[in-house]
């Protein structure tokens, strides 16, 4: 019993425990020595636990150290000659002993330098290893949506750098950009509406008088209205002028080679059913469709027994287009049918237009009082008048240009519209100026950094102006249609206020060229409001800008 205890104590002193057989002590090995190969260090040739090639022995006794078998020849340097696990040529040995390290077979040729000879992942000739461990990093291939694996380029990559920075600045502060856009859009809407209203008023000024489309008028000297047989009474001290024969005047006009077309008119007064008092009537002889007033509804005179009136006349008589009215004079009556509604303001629009034969049926003088002529295109009006007056010298008729009876009210409205438009444009420009000044002062430190990196004053001006140019273009693109819509809504209301309907020709006054100019006008307002802040930013000293917070 005592001998067994001594053996146990001796084994504990040595640092080893007995594995099998009582009374047998384990042999204590020198530190760092291997049996059969004295002087060899284990740490110099064999892999340590945790290194490549080291396989733990699950069957090893927990208390007894089993040294590896002696190596028949010195091992090679694993880091120089042998492929590492995961490289080409390395094959794991499933039958390897759990506790014995078996070095791989020698390589007949030294391995090539991987970084020089072997293709890298992503290059031509590289084949991925599908059996590789899942922890191996696989570099991603080129994106399928970009050619040649190149990353997609930004839309502003090809723009100059100041322009790209200016466009990006527009989206940096959405609230201020919206304020600038609102100011520019308001100015664009105002200018578009003002231009359309001015064009409409110009058309009203031109077409408000009857027969205003004829550039030349020939006076025969006969009375302008009244019952049949009425004559012109000269003023005191004046001799009555000669009265030309309408047939002679018509012959002279036909004989003149530079006359393109003409027609004649005669005036009178009759009683119209539904209208209190006498009503002026104008009778037409010949094709007067080219000199007729603008039609709102219906058609022009096409034969006897037809009439054309204004909206004011329809309201006063209580009729509409398609109805009939009766004309009465000296016990004679003639029923005419209203075939069209026209726009004109002569005699407050209370004039009935019909054929000259209608006046003849009522017993009125139907001889022409005036001839309205149009010369051939390209003919000077003065030369035509000179030749025509020479031909009419023996008839007693006189030719002159059509007098433009301009309305002072319309002229005053045009001036007022222009003044209000300029004021609103100035307000919009000041709004853009205020917004750009605030934005430029807030970004003065960034401007200093850009200047320190080499941005020139000209590039600074370009960047600031570009930041509002895009906003101005978008605002103008939205403001022009809004201005047109506002014009189409307000202008008919103005006509209804005076009891007149406006023709469609007075509303469709916008041509493509004016619309393009209006859109550029919105951009001009934005750029004009940003000129002063852009100049201030270009003149700012770089060091002062960098010190500003």
Protein model, in words:
This protein has 549 residues and is α+β, with helices and mostly antiparallel strands. Among the domains are: 161-204 and 410-546, no CATH class; 210-223 and 242-403, Barwin-like endoglucanases. 39% of the residues lie in helices and 12% in strands. It has helices spanning 2-14, 42-45, 161-169, 174-207, 246-255, 311-317, 356-361, 381-391, 408-442, 444-452, 457-497, 512-539, 542-547; strands spanning 216-219, 259-272, 278-285, 295-298, 306-309, 324-329, 332-342, 351-355, 370-375, 398-401. The protein has a 6-stranded mixed β-barrel. Strand 6 (324-329) and strand 7 form a beta hairpin. Helix 4 (174-207) packs across helix 11, helix 9 (408-442) runs parallel beside helix 12 (512-539) and helix 11 runs antiparallel to helix 12 (512-539).
Descriptors:
single chain, 549 residues, alpha+beta, Barwin-like endoglucanases, 39% helix, elongated, disordered N terminus
Write the layout of secondary structure elements.
Elements: H1 2-14, H2 42-45, H3 161-169, H4 174-207, E1 216-219, H5 246-255, E2 259-272, E3 278-285, E4 295-298, E5 306-309, H6 311-317, E6 324-329, E7 332-342, E8 351-355, H7 356-361, E9 370-375, H8 381-391, E10 398-401, H9 408-442, H10 444-452, H11 457-497, H12 512-539, H13 542-547
Parallel strand pairs: 3-8, 5-7
Antiparallel strand pairs: 1-9, 1-10, 2-3, 2-6, 2-9, 4-7, 5-8, 6-7
């Amino acid at each position: 019993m005592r001998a067994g205890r001594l053996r146990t104590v001796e084994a504990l002193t040595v640092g080893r425990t007995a594995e099998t057989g009582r009374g047998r002590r384990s042999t204590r090995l020198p530190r760092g020595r291997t049996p059969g190969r004295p002087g060899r260090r284990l740490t110099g040739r064999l892999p340590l636990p945790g290194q490549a090639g080291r396989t733990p022995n699950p069957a090893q006794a927990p208390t007894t150290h089993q040294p590896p078998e002696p190596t028949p020849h010195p091992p090679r340097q694993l880091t120089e000659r042998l492929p590492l696990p995961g490289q080409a040529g390395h094959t794991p040995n499933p039958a390897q002993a759990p506790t014995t390290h078996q070095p791989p077979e020698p390589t007949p040729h030294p391995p090539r330098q991987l970084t020089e000879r072997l293709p890298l992942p992503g290059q031509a000739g590289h084949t991925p290893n599908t059996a590789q461990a899942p922890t191996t990093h696989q570099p991603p291939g080129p994106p399928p949506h970009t050619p040649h694996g190149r990353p997609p380029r930004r839309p502003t990559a090809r723009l100059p750098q100041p322009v790209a920075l200016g466009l990006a600045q527009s989206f940096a502060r959405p609230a201020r950009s919206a304020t600038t856009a609102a100011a520019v859009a308001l100015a664009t809407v105002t200018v578009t509406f003002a231009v359309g209203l001015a064009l409409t008023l110009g058309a009203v000024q031109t077409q408000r008088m009857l027969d205003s489309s004829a550039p030349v008028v020939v006076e025969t000297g006969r009375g302008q209205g009244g019952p049949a047989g009425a004559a012109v009474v000269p003023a005191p001290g004046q001799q009555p002028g000669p009265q030309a024969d309408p047939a002679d005047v018509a012959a002279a006009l036909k004989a003149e080679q530079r006359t393109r077309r003409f027609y004649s008119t005669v005036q009178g007064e009759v009683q119209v059913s539904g209208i209190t008092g006498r009503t002026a009537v104008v009778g037409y002889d010949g094709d007067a469709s080219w000199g007729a007033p603008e039609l709102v509804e219906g058609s022009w005179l096409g034969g006897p027994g037809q009439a054309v009136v204004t909206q004011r006349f329809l309201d006063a008589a209580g009729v509409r287009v398609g109805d009939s009215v009766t004309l009465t004079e000296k016990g004679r009556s003639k029923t005419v049918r209203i075939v069209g509604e026209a726009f004109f303001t002569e005699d407050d629009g209370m004039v009935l237009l019909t054929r000259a034969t209608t006046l003849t049926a009522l017993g009125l003088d139907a001889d022409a009082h005036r001839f309205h002529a149009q010369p051939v295109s390209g003919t000077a009006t003065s030369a035509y008048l000179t030749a025509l007056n020479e031909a009419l010298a023996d008839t007693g008729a006189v030719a002159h240009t059509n007098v433009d009876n301009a309305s002072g009210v319309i002229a005053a409205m045009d001036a007022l519209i222009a003044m209000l438009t300029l004021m609103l444009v100035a307000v919009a420009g000041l709004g853009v100026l205020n917004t750009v000044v605030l934005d430029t002062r807030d970004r003065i430190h960034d401007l200093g950094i850009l200047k320190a990196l080499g941005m020139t004053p000209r590039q600074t001006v370009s960047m600031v102006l570009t930041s509002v140019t895009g906003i101005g273009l978008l605002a103008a693109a939205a403001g022009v249609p809004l201005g047109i819509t506002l014009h189409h809504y307000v202008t008919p209301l103005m006509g209804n206020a005076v009891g007149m309907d406006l023709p469609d020709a007075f509303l469709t006054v916008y041509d493509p060229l004016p619309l393009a100019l209006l859109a550029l006008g919105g951009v001009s307002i934005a750029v004009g409001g940003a000129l002063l802040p852009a100049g201030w930013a270009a003149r700012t000293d770089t060091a002062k800008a960098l010190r500003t917070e």
